[in-house]
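Hello Y.,

Per our agreement to keep a running log of every chain we model this quarter, I'm adding this entry. I've kept the format consistent with earlier entries: sequence first, then predicted structure.
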Amino acid sequence: MLTKIYRDSPSEKELYRVVDILRHDGIVIYPTDGVYAVGCALDSAKGLERLRRIKGEGAHSVSFESISQIAEYCRVDNATFRTLKANLPGPFTFILTASSRMPSKTLGKRKTIGVRMPDNPITQALIRHLGTPLASVSVREDAETEYMTDPSLLEERYANAVDCVVDGGIGSLTPSTVVDLTGDEAEIVREGAGDLQ
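Predicted structure for the entry above:
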């Protein structure tokens, strides 16, 4: 199912339609401020299992609505908070140490998780209406191919694997910048969109 939601004025009716899918263990492809992501509600054990079957062990990141919500699921000290506040929302994935609240199905065998707070009104509205973060991975065929950016092609490719593709317009080919904040200093793991402040 392909659902059109306009970035500048997201339809409440369409948002709730997608949120209802997520609340019932659904998997959704949605736009971010970079590439499209495939995800599920963080508190959905069945959704997390389905996501794992689609994209491999664990989620690669979790999208949040706010920094305070990030702090509920990850360890955030003062220095980390300042870095998050200076750069979010924005096209960054920050690697943080997960707290005990983070579902083990999300982590796999890891103790860290990538956190996102995309600067995209659709993503933010979905998380706000859902009331829980979204566990997700970027949508791409495999490590050798480019990210997929056209919602109609995403729907065609993943129609049998996901419950809904949110058409938020053509996505970007540039992924987020990945920054590891688990050490003494911030370390850029992957250069992408955005300049770290």
